[in-house]
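sorry for the late reply, my laptop died twice this morning and i had to redo everyting from scratch. anyway the thing you sent over, i finally got around to it. pasting the sequence first so we're on the same page, its 113 residues, then the predicted structure underneath. double check i copied it right bc i was rushing
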Amino acid sequence: MVKSDDEGLIKKYKVKSFPHFLILKTGEKTPIHYDADDFSYSELFEFINTYSETFVDPNKAGTNQPEGESRASKPWLSTPVPFLSKQSANDICLKKDGVLCVIYTLPTAASSD
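ok and here's the structure:
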């Protein structure tokens, strides 16, 4: 990520707009520039994933689901607001890099109104 105050990077890679995102691959002299205006996590993930050495399926990214394991055995993966339990914790938020896990607790179910 190149910011407007990164003078060395601006000169070296001829950056003209900010923020600017580029990929520097080992052994290549020319950087790969991200030209889109959307700097959301999902868009940057897709861009980086295209040029990564190991492709990550975005549908399975961060689920820690072993190959061949059925999603039916993990119902929380198909729920919009999954229940956090000992079995679901790693898949929901504990073993995902770059994810903020927020847990909101209520004294009783009636308090949710």
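The chain has a mean pLDDT of 75.
thats about all i looked at so far, will dig more tmrw
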